[in-house]
Amino acid sequence: MKLTIIRKTVFHAALGALALAPLATGCGKAEAPAKAAAVKAGEAVDKAGEAAKAGAGEAADKAKAAAAAAKQVAEVAKKEALNTAKVAAHGAEETAAAAKAAAAKTAAAAKVAVAANATAKGEAQNVPADWSAVLTDPSKATAIAPAVYKVKFDTTKGAFVMTVHREWAPKGADRFYNLVKAGYFKDIGFFRAIDNFMVQFGIHGTPKLNTVWRPARIQDDPPKQSNKRGYVTFATSGKDSRTTQVFINFKDNGFLDRMGFSPFGLIDAEGMKVVDSLYKGYGEGAPRGRGPLQGRLQSEGNAYLKKDFPKMDFLKSAEVLDGK
After folding, report:
1. CB 51 within 8 A of CB 63
2. Based on CB atoms within 10 Å of each CB, which residue in 17, 28, 226, 228 is the most buried?
3. Does 125 map to a domain?
4. Which residues pair with residue 93 across a beta bridge?
5. Distance between CA 234 and CA 40 in Å, rounded?
6. Are residues 149 and 103 in the same domain?
7. Rounded distance, CA 313 to CA 322, Å?
8. Are residues 18 and 49 in the same domain?
9. pTM check: above 0.70
């Protein structure tokens, strides 16, 4: 009876070793130790059977030893199976991380390729989904302008075209592109027209839009072109203060270059005939001249201009002719 119980113990140890095989599912390296344990446990059962022939006492001792050996082999196999599974899982994590990094690099490369293609075609990049939203939210003015684009201005004295070169002043060219595409330049007064100097515009006729855009400043561009006749430049009130106001030079004003005024566009000789015809009778703004007070224009808009400056010319609209 005692020998039968011991043989059953050995047999159960063998079964335990065989039960380890499922732990290694998907892990080929872990399966081998588990099978080896099962084989060794089986051998232990056979030895126990042989020991029975030698006598019950001796068989019992050998059976106990075989059972202990089988159990030890089973435990080792279990540990190896678990460790192999952990290694496999860690390897899977590393593989997933590598795949994720590769996907990110591929996406970045694709983005660069798209940008390069857009540049080659003369198209804008990072174009907002809804241009109308840009008009009331400068943070959405994210478009990068084409390398070269043309803008048609329709004024109360006729139309003219400006050619913008982004390389001259990238930040200025981008800002102007966003303003035009958003429909900002509609019914805008040429509020500061000084003969033999320049004409300035860009304060909106709707006060709430002035409130939105006045704090939306962009950083300076170092001057690469001179403020010669026909060149168009953003007005500033100090370092990194450009917003929406621009001016067109009536004559060569090279002294502005040293002050950091950076031209971004050029109007040809034919277009400058229209610019020259804009009303200049009000001259410099108050209080130094007869022109509008910028503070009142900011807060009162076109109601102020059209009431107090009836001869002032206006920019009716502006549109990008090329560059998408």
Report:
1. yes
2. 17
3. no
4. none
5. 88
6. no
7. 26
8. yes
9. no
User: Around 79, how many Cα atoms within 13 Å sit in the side-chain half-sphere?
Assistant: 6
Instruction: Looking at the structure, tell me whether residues 213 and 316 fall in a common domain.
Output: yes
Q: Residues 283-292: contacts with CB within 8 Å, 24+ apart?
A: 283/193, 283/194, 283/195, 284/192, 284/194, 285/191, 285/192, 289/194, 291/191, 291/192, 291/193, 292/189, 292/191, 292/192
Same domain, 305 and 164: yes
Which pLDDT score, from 0 to 100, does residue 104 have? Answer: 74
Residue indicated by tokens 């917003």: 243
pLDDT in tens, 162-202: 999 999 999 999 999 999 999 999 999 999 999 999 999 99
Residue 211 structure tokens: 């409130």
Q: From residue 216, how far is each of 70, 120, 138, 155, 209 by CA, in Å?
A: 79, 30, 6, 26, 11
Nearest-10 crossing angle of helices 28-54, 2-18: 170
Q: Computed from CA positions of residues 89, 94, 95, 96, in that sequence, does the dihedral angle turn out positive or negative?
A: positive
Residue 231 predicted with pLDDT over 50: yes
Residue 89 belongs to a domain: yes
* Same domain? 11 vs 85: yes
Q: Phi/psi of residue 59, each to 5°? A: -65, -40
| CATH classification at residue 287 | 2.40.100.10
* Between 114 and 107, residue with greater pLDDT: 107
What distance, in Å, lies between the first and last C-alpha atoms of the chain? Answer: 95
What is the tens place of the pLDDT at every residue in 212-225? 999 999 999 999 99
Query: Residues 206, 253: one domain?
Result: yes
